[in-house]
Amino acid sequence: MIIILVYICTADFLAFVHNLCMKYIDLKKLSKTQFKRYTGISHSTFYLMVEQLKKHLATQGRPPKLSVEDKLLLCLSYWREYRTLFHVAMSYGISEPTASRLVRQVEDTLIQSGLFNLPKDIPEGEGIDWNIVMVDATEIAIQSPKKTEEKL
User: Fold this and answer.
1) Which of 84, 89, 102, 133 is the most buried (most CB within 10 A)?
2) Cut 0.70: pTM above it
3) Residue 35 in contact with residue 43, Cβ under 8 Å?
């Protein structure tokens, strides 16, 4: 028996793979409102983040698979959508460890820039109504049923 495997890359398949994630080149076409809905940040904040990343990310070695803008979009989708690193990595055509490394690099670079830190003091004053929600995210061991050995 002879099995012949043929690799066919049709235009439809390539379009499908391209549309698995929205690349930066596609985001430039969105309006300001749509851009903010997709990324969670404004154009000006996005470009400020890209500027900081370009200053600090290494440019030595082999050319990266993703542009700086796409690396930032990968991180924003990870933070905003609460997807697993595996799913984010698959969307961008990279491995899970690479996605994890990129998220860590971008986080560290943006934190070190000092421009994107959360405020340390909670604002006080009249007209500020704080609703506090506490979530207990403690891990609890679950008792699973013990496996019984079946005799044949």
Assistant:
1) 102
2) no
3) yes
